[in-house]
């Protein structure tokens, strides 16, 4: 979220809020950014694997899904320069670097016969089907970005700030029109796709859609997850949108870290501290909390999550037991334990 009004910020006018795949077209296939081409191939392969499993070709589905995971990992590798050079996010840079080996290992486990990973693969397919249309259908993307900007502006007004909204560098009415002469840093911010919370919504939507469970419980879990994500994302946008222009974190220690270790201009400090460190760290906590709430309603989600933990640690986990769930992952009642 750059500050195009401030001359000192022109050299760093990058999409500060942007963490979506369509924001770093370092290379392209025709007119399509390379990263976009790769992610579409990956999601298409996940969908093919899901269809094959549904038709009973489980072994073939495992191999197709394994290939999809490798392509998925390559996609994240192409995003490393974006997160490191543009977004300057240590957390997201580390995650994207770790993605390829983890995805390749997931593919290896599928080839070796871990059939349960097909459910996690199905979840990723649904995640992609939820997220990618937002990135690729112009009127959907425009509506979501501008609606989020309007809601964020309303949140700012509740706190006594009413800068107005103008066109941002992304071409949408999504930039908060703070006067650079009146603010501390001379910067302002604008909303892009990743500011809408659609990424987190796609994660939970994909997990919920992939598991087998009664429609009513799936609908309740989905509504809860989306509602909490929407509210927390709105609070996050308001926090960052005010912290950046008003310099809430322009203290010397933070300025030193940002300029010396991240190579960013000093007037970008409050944005980077509020977005890359505070908001992203709290987002991890929030996602864990939302996951717990969803599991209480839809315990079937434990199965793909247990596979995620297996990929990360190499150990088997019983999340339902750890969480004290009375319901099995398949929706049935757990049998009472007996003394041995």
- Strand-residue proportion: under 5%
Strand order in space, largest sheet = 1-2
- Coarse morphology: globular
Portion in helices = 55-70%
List the total number of helices: 12
Largest sheet: 2 strands, antiparallel
Report Rg.
Answer: 22 Å
Per DSSP E runs of 2 or more residues, the count of β-strands stands at 4
Secondary structural class: mainly alpha
* H/E series: EEHHHHHHEEHHHHHH
Q: Which blocks of ≥5 consecutive residues have pLDDT under 50?
A: 1-31, 335-340
* First and last CA, distance: 61 Å
Mean pLDDT: 85
Could you explain the architecture of this structure?
This protein is mainly alpha-helical. About 60% of the residues lie in helices and about 5% in strands. The strands form two sheets. A two-stranded antiparallel ribbon has the order 1-2. Helix 2 packs antiparallel against helix 4 and helix 9 packs across helix 10. The protein starts with about 25 loop residues before the first strand and ends in an 18-residue tail after the last helix.
């Amino acid at each position: 979220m750059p500050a195009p009004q401030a001359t000192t910020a022109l050299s760093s006018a990058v999409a500060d809020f942007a963490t979506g795949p369509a924001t770093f077209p370092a290379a392209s296939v025709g007119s399509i950014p390379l990263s976009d081409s790769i992610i579409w191939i990956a999601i298409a392969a996940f969908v093919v694997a899901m269809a094959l499993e549904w038709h009973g070709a489980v072994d073939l589905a495992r191999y197709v899904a394994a290939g999809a995971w490798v392509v998925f990992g390559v996609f994240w590798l192409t995003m490393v320069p974006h997160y490191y050079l543009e977004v300057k996010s240590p957390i997201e840079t580390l995650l994207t670097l770790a993605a390829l080996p983890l995805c390749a290992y997931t593919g290896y486990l599928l080839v070796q016969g871990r059939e349960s990973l097909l459910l996690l693969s199905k979840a990723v397919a649904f995640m992609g089907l939820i997220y990618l249309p937002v990135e690729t259908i112009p009127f959907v993307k425009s509506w979501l970005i501008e609606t989020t900007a309007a809601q964020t502006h309303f949140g700012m007004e509740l706190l006594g700030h009413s800068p107005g909204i103008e066109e941002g560098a992304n071409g949408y009415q999504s930039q908060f029109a703070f006067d650079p002469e009146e603010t501390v840093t001379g910067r302002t911010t604008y909303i892009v796709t990743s500011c809408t919370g659609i990424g987190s919504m796609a994660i939970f939507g994909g997990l919920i859609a992939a598991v087998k469970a009664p429609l009513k419980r799936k609908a309740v879990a989905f509504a809860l997850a989306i509602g909490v994500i929407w509210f927390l994302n709105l609070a996050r946008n308001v926090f960052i949108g005010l912290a950046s222009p008003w310099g809430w974190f322009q203290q010397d220690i933070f300025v030193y870290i940002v300029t010396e270790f991240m190579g960013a201009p000093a007037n970008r400090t409050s944005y980077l501290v509020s977005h890359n460190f505070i908001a992203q760290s709290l987002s991890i906590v929030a996602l864990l909390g939302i996951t717990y709430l969803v599991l209480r309603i839809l315990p079937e989600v434990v199965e793909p999550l247990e596979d995620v933990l297996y990929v990360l640690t190499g150990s088997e986990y019983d999340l339902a037991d750890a969480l004290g769930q009375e319901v099995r992952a398949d929706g049935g009642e757990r049998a009472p334990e007996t003394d041995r």
